[in-house]
Amino acid sequence: MFKHAQLESVKTWINHPDYRPLPLHGRIHRAIRQMILDGTLEAGKALPASRALAQSLEVSRDTIETAYGQLHAEGFIVRKVGSGTHVSERARGMSVKGPKPAQLPPSSTMHLSHRGKAIFQSGGLRDFLIPRPFAPGVPETRRFPLALWERLQRQALKEHGTQVLSHSPPQGLLSLRQAIADYINLERGARASADRVLILTSSQQALTLVANVLLDPRDAVFIEDPVYQGAYKAFIAAGLRCIPIPLDQEGMQVEHILNMPNAAKAVFLTPSHQFPSGTSLSLQRRLSIIEWAHRHQGWIIEDDYDSEFHYDGKPTACVQGLDSQDRTIYIGTFTKSLFPALRLAYMVLPPPLVEAFTIARSLQDGHSAAIAQLTLARFIEGGHFGAYIRQMRQLYAKRRDTLARLLEQELSDYLHAQVPAGGMQMACRLLTQDAESDIISRARRANIELLGLQGLCQQAPYQRGFLMGFAAYTPDELRIAVTRLKQIFATFPV
């Protein structure tokens, strides 16, 4: 029979958080197995009869029999008629001392590699599940044409059948690569062809690939300051050094790079709508960056994350399209232009890099789902993507203007809105002396999401304020959120 302490240990393990999702017999099985592994139950130890243990734990005998049966099948116990149930002698060599339930080590004490520590320390998880005003970078999904998407998906399934259930090529399906190349050549002035396009799951994957395939640890990369934190974290995690370059009204101040041309091997840009300021890199500076890359054999990493949404005039052609020397890696995503769950993005690569990047991508996650690629290809080829973008461009422009008007009417004493010419979010400078972090915390408790600008800056002087998304929220939702934010500001002493 179990001693009292052993019986209590079983009960403790049964209620362990890791075991709660399991059925009761599974929890009892795991509890006894763990006690054998950590030496609490030694080899040869007699276990209680199933009826007695069932009574002690106040469960059915069938539950204990099921747990014992699994332990016997795995070799942890032996059962013989007339001699009862015992811990297997084979358990003598499998005892692994482990922590007690109340002494499980926190993850922070576990050994991580230098790269693992950089990833862990880069910041917590973002809650993507419930987009709250004013979470930036979130598209409107309630107006997406689901019926049309479903019809195109059925067409793809009918045409390709069970082939879509197999692995797809690591570089991506040709139909989608061709559709992307045709679209960005027309709309973004790119210099793309299907053989230069690599299909990925996200722009973050693209940044990670660039950091690890093109650059070595301790290599440096020029970054915008303030900068998109996804890129910064990908570079730091790869062991790179980031050299911040300040901005002005024409985007990154390229003269700083030209004054120290050999300090870095690459430059990261969001030239269409700089994240987070919203400025656009001037044509002259784009040409200067291309000249720097050609002269010093540097790389240009162009993240064109939301260039489809430009509201005032026609956007400048992408840097990749201006670069005749093939020193630019162009990154695009459908996460913001369509919907996040699609999980499709792409890179346009210089021809000599395509094979190396495709192999590296295949080692990360193999391939992207074929059915999503085929459906998206049809969506683009049929002109539906362009039509949807035009519709969303008009919608987002109205929502941008609505937010700007609300901020001017209700929060002009607290915030100065820097209305962007495009994009899905608006940078707002904080006019009060209140702590940025305190406002963010109080706003989150009121179900409002603000991204602080200070945390995006690498060098002083820091610009205090917030990045406020507007694309995913109706005028009523924006109005309610602005009213709540005004109430939050009112709680701070004058």
TrEMBL record:
The protein's matches in Gene3D superfamilies, at most eight in alphabetical order, are given as: Type I PLP-dependent aspartate aminotransferase-like (Major domain), Winged helix-like DNA-binding domain superfamily/Winged helix DNA-binding domain
For the HTH gntR-type domain, which residue ranges apply? 22-90
The GO terms this record gives for MF are: transaminase activity
Keyword hit for Protein transport: no
Record InterPro entries: Aminotransferase_I/II_large, HTH_trans_reg/aminotransferase, PyrdxlP-dep_Trfase, PyrdxlP-dep_Trfase_major, Tscrpt_reg_HTH_GntR, WH-like_DNA-bd_sf, WH_DNA-bd_sf
Q: Which UniProt keywords apply?
A: Aminotransferase, DNA-binding, Pyridoxal phosphate, Transcription, Transcription regulation, Transferase
One of this protein's Pfam families, by short name?
GntR
User: What's the protein here called?
Assistant: PLP-dependent aminotransferase family protein
Q: Which organism is it from?
A: Alcaligenes endophyticus
* Upper lineage: Bacteria, Pseudomonadati, Pseudomonadota, Betaproteobacteria, Burkholderiales
Transferase as UniProt keyword: yes
The similarity comment for this entry is: In the C-terminal section; belongs to the class-I pyridoxal-phosphate-dependent aminotransferase family.
**What PROSITE patterns does its record include?**
HTH_GNTR
